[in-house]
Amino acid sequence: MDRKLAAILAADVVGYSALMEADEAGTFDRLRAGRKELFEPEIARHHGRVFKLMGDGMLAEFGSVVDAVECAVALQRGLAERNASISEDRRLEVRIGINLGEVIVEGDDRYGEGVNVAARLQQLAEPGGICVSEKVSREVEKKLAFGFEPMGEQQVKNIAEPISCFRVTLPNQSDQSSQRPRKLSDKPAIAVLPFQNMSGDPEQEYFSEGLTEDIITELSRFRNLLVVARNSSFTFKGQAVDVKEIGRKLGARYVVEGSVRRAGNRIRISAQLLESATGNHLWAERYDREMEDIFAVQDELVRAISGVIPGQLDRHAVETLRRKPPDNLTAYDCELRGRWALTHWNEGLSVALEWFEKSAKADPNYALAQAGIALVYAYQIPAHGLSPESTIARAKDYARRATVLDDRNPTVHANAALAYIFSCEQELSRRHAERAVALNPNDSYALFVKACALTYSGSLQEALEFFAKSERLEPYAPDDLRLDCLCDCHYMLHNYDKVIEIHSIYQNVPAFLYLIRAAAAAQLGRQKQARDAVKDYERLRSAGHDAVAMINYQMRMCWRQEDRDHWLDGYRKAGIQV
User: In angstroms, how far is CA 575 from the centroid of its own chain?
Assistant: First the structure.
């Protein structure tokens, strides 16, 4: 096996599927002409060689990393010139990634991590932009007239360690940025501005800066967010700039800003989330703490602020999407709609499945869409009384597919874990739940799924702790699916009054949950209430939903025999012949 060091350039057309759908023949002709008239001549002129074409993408090899970067810049400039005379909806925009690394040589092809990293860097680049690895930046920064703006460390699919990335900036590009806004991504981009030190003590700057940096780091764990790099956000430190201008300069849809005020042994943190386009406040909170242990306080505040913001963004994004034409939604938009429908029972599982399938159709490699489909199938067993065996097989297949596509996404692992819980795969559910929390300990959904896995494995007190952590970051809504598993946990802990209390505020309750209420009421000796709950189940259940079959299925979900016996005892006391 031959190996060598090479600079690899990966290029890919942005939104190619949508362009082909709108104008297949025209898009294909423009792509072919772009390759023949621009890409192939420029790559050859810079002593490079295309070694792989992949539909709308290509991979090229260069012996010199300087040649590779100069070629990438020439390609983006050439494309910009070609696009100038074309309407916006027909333009071909390209993302480019460049890596310097060892590759495996096999004939005319190249393989290995050197190639894989270049492909991942390409995915991180902005439309019309160039993203390079730290090795590339270090090699060429003093040899070329281009700037390299740090993007921080990025965790990418199928690469074990985070990659330190840099965005290439052309001469005068930073000066022109105030006149030319960056193009916004489909995913929500968020900038965290340096928290202002209001204490009048310059020595407290370290705390406010450390708090800001940690919030940026923790928000970066949420794979659905694009977080503006620390170096970019901190250029606004000490400046009184309008939030709309900040959003335009940084390409951020949302901005977080705040202040730190310390007096004696007390500290007050104020934080707010704003929509950059309108300047509207989406969320604001104030935190007062005693400064007994400054690092413990900083960690607590970082968890609180970074944990609540993603939920606020999702809520606002869904409200915006409801006003957007359904035919104009991206794969991300469709997945978000599906996720919202899934976590709020009033939207319905069929609605969630429809959105997830639209997302998967728009992008078959979008792991979150595949994970969403897995979870819908799993939920359909108790909710709609579907045959467990065939439905479980489909749920497990989609869960496996999702985690292979993206092993670093906590939501993917959380969805897979929940699907495995309902598929009665206890070991797999624990493994993926733990992985989700490890990837993002401030994700309320990951914490909830870990609580579910602990519940059905019998670790009930620990499960309650994780339910509480999840609720602190994202309070329960009346139609929140998390209330379902929370009821189960309290029943298994013999907290029957708590089950009935939760059930009484739970809106749009699925029919099978009335069986849980019946068992809890029966354990309290409230036979009429138990019988009424069974009647409600019979009135609301879908055709084919069988109480005995569902109870037997629930027994398979529980690890411990004592928990199975406890459930059966409650159901029998409620008059269900099982």
Answer: 45
Q: Which domains does the chain have, with CATH numbers?
A: 2-176 (3.30.70.1230), 189-304 (3.40.50.10610), 326-573 (1.25.40.10)
The Cα–Cα gap between 343 and 341 comes to 6
**pLDDT at res. 418:** 92
CA pair distance 309, 256, nearest whole angstrom: 9
The sign of the torsion formed by the CA atoms of 207, 208, 213, 218 equals positive
If DSSP codes are grouped into helix, strand and coil, which group holds residue 331? helix
In this predicted model, what pLDDT tens digit does every residue of 308-350 receive, in sequence order?
888 888 877 777 766 666 665 788 888 988 988 887 665 578 8
**Spatial CB neighbours of 341, under 8 Å, sequence gap ≥ 6:** 347, 348, 349, 351, 352, 355
Span 177-221, pLDDT tens digits: 333 444 444 567 888 999 998 877 777 787 888 899 889 888 888
Instruction: Quote the tokens at residue 144.
Output: 């070329």
**CB-based contacts of 249: which residues, under 8 Å, 6+ apart?**
177, 178, 181, 182
Residues 68 and 61: beta-carbon distance below 8 Å = no
Q: How many CB atoms lie within 10 A of CB 41?
A: 13
Q: Which two tokens stand for residue 286?
A: 């104030």
State what percent of residues in the chain have pLDDT above 90.
40
**pLDDT averaged over the chain?**
86
**Could you report the per-residue pLDDT of 11-50, keeping only the tens digit for each?**
999 888 778 888 888 888 889 999 999 999 999 999 999 9
b/e 324-338 (16+ beta carbons within 10 angstroms → b): eeeeebbbbbbbbbb
Q: Which residue has the tokens 């916006």?
A: 88
CA-closest candidate to residue 208, choices 244, 228, 238, 232: 238
Dist. CA 65–CA 144, nearest whole Å:
11
Q: Which residues contact 70 (CB under 8 A, 6 or more apart)?
A: 46, 144
Dist. CA 193–CA 201, nearest whole Å: 20
**DSSP calls for 510-531:** -TTHHHHHHHHHHHTT-HHHHH
Give the pLDDT band (50/70/90) at residue 567: very high
Query: Residue 190: phi, psi to the nearest 5?
Result: -135, 140
Q: Which range has the worst mean pLDDT, 130-134, 338-342, 381-385?
A: 381-385
What letter would DSSP give residue 234? G
Cβ count within 10 A of residue 199 = 18
Q: Give the three-state DSSP class for 274.
A: strand
